[in-house]
Every structure is written in structure tokens, then in C-alpha cells.
Hints:
By secondary structure, the chain is an alpha/beta fold. The chain has helices spanning about 10-30, 50-55, 60-70, 75-80, 85-110, 150-165, 165-185, 195-200, 215-220, 235-240, 255-275; strands spanning about 115-120, 135-140, 200-205, 210-215, 225-230, 245-250, 250-255.
Amino acid sequence: AKGIKEPIQLIEGNLTLATAKILKKKLESEGATVMLTRNEPGISAFGITYEKWRDSLFLRSLDSAYARGDVSFEENNFLRTKANDTEIFRRFFLQEKMRERARKINEFHPDLTLIIHYNVDETNTNWNKPTKKNFNMAFVGGSFAADELDKPEARIDFLRLLLTDEIENSIDFSKYVVEGLVEKTNVPAALDSCAIYLKGNCISTDVRGVFCRNLALTRMVKGTLCYGESLYQDNINECKALSKNEITIDGIKTSKRVEQVAEGYFQGIINYMKTIQ
């Protein structure tokens, strides 16, 4: 009909994978050894699709999670007997995928870990309209809430972060990453007033745009890390730019905006490495 415009669909997993692949090539050209926790669109950290994981690994993973105490008796029964596909995916697979990513990273024992995400405005209900907000930010470990210390594994992670320099080193690294993103994307770094969760779930550091937050990967991944959240996908200008298929990287069509984000991460890594060598 006249006047109706096609909706724009963005798949964050494809944006992040394309960003990681561009960045990987840039880093390898400088002599770095780079490991990605996944290598193809639609393929999880387990190296297979969610559907294949569900059919081959789900029950075994659920048994292990129940034995660890990560899943309650009631949740175990629900997932095993009543849960539909969406509930299994959201309530169990996503956390198991995070564990697998952390396991792969810790086994690789990297000098630096970069976790790549694209952000959204958390107040934009159902994400069915654009937002004017747009910020770059990064998270590091810390900022545990009392109820996040119930499990022995979480308390061990808390002690590790308390007794090492991992948080301080991660803040230093993330400072350079956020600076690189700001410069290459021309999008400002966030203040804690820019999003509800930055005040409610985070502790501000002395670096603009870098916050302590107890996310699964900032807690479980060992060593120096940066959990990057670049741009707001639902910002009207970013939405248009990110949806363009202008370049191809390893068979994935993506936008020049993604390339700019990768350049921001690359600059941040290079500048940080100069300070520790």
C-alpha cells in the first residue's frame, strides 16, 4: 500500500560476528593469534545450531546443571517435561551457551578478551520504533548484588576478582576500547545517567563509559577483558546504516558502519598494548 515502508530487521548475532571477523583479520595482520568462540552465522559456541544442541546435548547438559546446583528441582522438572522450545532456549540454553563461551576462552588463555555486543535503548518497549539515544560503553567485572553470591561458583569468582588485578587491568583496557569506539563511530561514551541499568546494576569507574557489572562473562572469564556495547541498534540513523549490505567478510554481507566499529575496537586494542609492552 502507498506510504507503507518495509520494516528493518537487524540480527545482532550477525552484526557481532561480522565485527569480530573484520577485527580478527586486522589483528592477525599485526601478528596476533585470535580465537573466536563461534565462526558462522546461526552456529552457537558449541559449534552446532540450537536445534542440534537441543536434540543431542540438552538432557545431558540439564543433568550436569542440576548436579552443580545451577538448576533447581522444580526448574529441572519443568524443563524436562513441560517447557516448550522458546522456554528451553531462554531459560536454559542461553546460560549454557555463556558457560561454553567462558570455557573456550579460559582454555585458550588469552592476553586479552573482547566480548562484542551492539546495544539498544532499554526503555524502547518491544523495539518497534527508533530511539534518539546513542552511546558507546563497556563493562568489566564486579558490582555483585547480594543474591548473586548464593552459589559457591559465584563466590569463587567474586574472590578471584577481589584478590587479583583483573578488574583494574580490565578498566585500563576498556578505557582504550571506549576511546577507540568514540573516535571511529563519532558516538559519545555513556554516563551512568544515560541508562537505568547503569545506575541500578552497575558501579561507575573513574573512566567515562566503563562500568563494573556482574554479567555472566565478566564474572566467569579470567584475565583482562572488555565487554563492549557499541552504538544503539535502534537509533534511527544507526538502524539505517547497520542494515546496509555494503561489504562482504568471509561470506557475510554487512555494512561499512560495522567496519567502523571494528576499527574502533582495533585502535583500542593497539593503543592499550602500547602501554603494557
